[in-house]
Amino acid sequence: MTKKIVSLLLVCLLLTGCNQTAVDRAGTTVSSSEEAQISVTENTTEATENGTSATDSADTEESTTPVQPLPQPVSFWNPICNEYISLFPSTESTEAFATIPRGATIGLVNWEGRFARVVWDGKVGYVYSNCLQPAESDYFAKHLKVLTPTTKYTYDQMYADMGKLQALYPDLISLSTIGKSELMRDIPVMIVGNTDAKYHILVQAAIHGREHFTAWIAMAMMDSILKQGALPSDVCYHIIPMSNPDGVFISQSGKLEERQIQVYELDLDFGHTNSSTTEYATQWKANACGEDINRNFMAGWDVSNERDEQSAQKYRGETPFSASEARALRDYTLSRTFHATISLHSHGSVLYYQYGTKQPVNRLSYSLAQAVQGVTGYVPTAYDNTSGAGYKDWAMEELGIPSLTVEIGSAATPIPQQDIYNTFDRCRDMLPTVYKWVTQN
Ligand SMILES: [Zn+2]
What is the Å distance from ligand 1's center to 352 Cα? Predict the structure, then answer.
C-alpha cells in the first residue's frame, strides 16, 4: 500500500468515514444455528491468572453470568489503517463504541451495505467494509488462477487474461466480439460453458468509462468459478467485461482527444464541470462521442433528458441506439434467450432491480436482488424512474428478462485500492447464486 493511499484513507476516515450517513441495513441476519457459543471471559481469565479459587463468591457470581453468543465468523480480516478503525454499534450510528487497532484480527460475519458486520475482542459491531483487507496473505492466489488484483484493469490486460483463461479451459471457453466501439475497438464477449446449455446468463460491465474496475470484477468472478471447477453443465455465462472500451481508455489515461475536448468545452459552457482536463477525463463515463451508453436504450429514452448536448455523462444521444456500443449490446442480447442479465456499475453497494411497472419482470428482478443480497450484502433499492434508458431498463421493459444493476464499491469511482478486497469477496459467489436462482424461477 502506498503512502498516498494510506493518507487518502485516513483523510476519508477522519473527514467522512466516521460521520458519513449510514445506508439502510441490508437486513441480512445470521440464524441461531449459525451462531457459536463464544463466552466473554475477561474476568474469568483474570481470576485464573491471579490464582483465585473458583469457589470465591465474587468469581462464582461472574462465572454464572449468562454466556453471550457471538456470531460465527466466516473469514478473518485486518484493518487498513495507520492506527485504528472505528467499530459502530449499528449501520445507522455515527458514534463508534470501540476502536480496532492496526494489526488486529477481525472476524467477518457478513457484509451489509457499505459495512461489514464483524466480531472482535468479544464485541459485535460494524466497520466500513473498505477498511478491511484479508488476513490471509495468499487470499487472491487462493481464489484466482489468472487474474491479479488491480484498480486499473486495461483493455489489453483484459484481452490477455481472456486468452490465458481460454488456453487453460479450451473446452469451456470461446471468445468472440459483440461489435465495435465508436473508435473501432472490438467489444469482446467471453462465453463460458456449453452454448446449448439450458440457462444463459449475461454479465456486462464498464458501460461507464470511469467504472473500469467492474471489468476486473466481471473477469475475476469467472476466473474464481473456473478455478473451483464449479461450472454446472446446464449454464452458459456470457461475460462482456468492457462494454465501453473507449470510455475506459479515456478515464484510465486521463487524456482528452480533440472530440472529447469539444465535449469538455460544452460541459464548461453549461456549467456541468469546473474540473481540470485530467480530472474531467478520469471521471469520464460516456463513450468517445460524449453519449452516455447507459442512457441510450429504448426504455424511457423519451423522458431521459438530463443533458441537451454531448457530455462526459448523462447525455442520451441523438436517437435511441445511436451509440454503436448500445447497438452491439442490444443485438447480442437479442441473439438468444437470456434468463438473467447483470450489469456491473460503481459505486454505492446497492442493487437496482426495478424499472417501470411491468410484471412479472419487476417481481422476479426483486426476488433475484434478494438472492444476490444474501451473498454480497448489497442492498436492494427501488429505482426512482427518473433517469431510465439504461441497459437493465431495456432488458426488463422490452425483453422481460429479470435483471439487476449491481453497484459495487463504497468509497468513490474510479474504485480506490482499499475497496478491492471487500468487493471481490462479496462478488466471487454472485454468479453461482444467480445461476441457482435462475434454475428455481
Ligand atoms: Zn454506472
Answer: 11
CA 205 – ligand 1 centroid, Å: 9
- Model confidence pLDDT, tens digit, residues 385-424: 556 899 999 999 999 999 999 999 988 999 999 999 999 9
The SS3 call for residue 250 is: helix
430: three-class secondary structure by DSSP: helix
CA of 208 to the centre of ligand 1 (A): 5
Q: Is residue 44's pLDDT more than 80?
A: no
Closest CA to 206 of 309, 281, 293: 293
Say what the pTM is: 0.85
Average pLDDT over residues 201-205: 98
- pLDDT score at 154: 98
Q: Which parts of 335-401 fold into alpha helices (H)?
A: 361-376, 391-397
Instruction: Detail the DSSP E strand segments found in 149-205.
Output: 173-180, 186-192, 199-205
* Whether the Cβ atoms of residue 413 and residue 14 lie closer than 8 Å to each other: no
Which residues have beta carbons under 5 A from ligand 1 (an ion)? Answer: 208, 211, 345
Q: Which domains does the chain have, with CATH numbers?
A: 3-134 (no CATH), 140-249+317-440 (3.40.630.10)
